Amino acid sequence: MKVPESGMPQEIYWESLFDVPLILDRLRIADSKGIVAELGCGYGTFTIPVARRTTENVHTFDIEPVMIERTQLRAAQAGLKNIHVELRDVLAHGFGLPGERRPGGRSCRCVRAGGRTKSGGPVPPLPADYL
User: Fold this and answer.
1) Total domain count, the chain
2) CATH (domain of 45)
3) Cα separation of 4 and 39, whole Å?
4) Per-block average pLDDT, block size 10, for the chain (131 residues)?
5) What span, in angstroms and rounded, lies between the C-alpha atoms of 67 and 116?
6) Which of 54, 88, 109, 125 is 20 to 30 A away from residue 100, measured at CA?
7) Euclidean distance between CA atoms 24 and 20, whole angstroms
8) Containing domain of residue 43, as a range?
9) How many CB atoms sit inside 10 A of residue 109's CB?
């Protein structure tokens, strides 16, 4: 279920749009326990700084091969070994990570209770009948 081309702007402009350290501070990424999953790595704008802040594995996914290649290159240049980049349509096939309850859909489906999503705050426990 590939979404139409996003029309990503040039990398330098894209990265100027975010205060990545502030965003990661607010999400308390350094306090993360367990793997980190990122939907849409893009240029690695968040992937690289997240991987520097945690000793955990960072799994990142994108549907665009050029974004995968760029993120892999940046990870290699930074010497980061805890980044796992995968070309994958997460909406159609899920993240493929341990503990994922169902493929596709909202990211909270594979985030454990108390975990965090990049787009929001803590993930509440899912109702028993949801699983």
Assistant:
1) 1
2) 3.40.50.150
3) 16
4) 65 93 86 82 95 92 95 97 94 80 49 54 46 38
5) 24
6) 54
7) 6
8) 11-90
9) 17
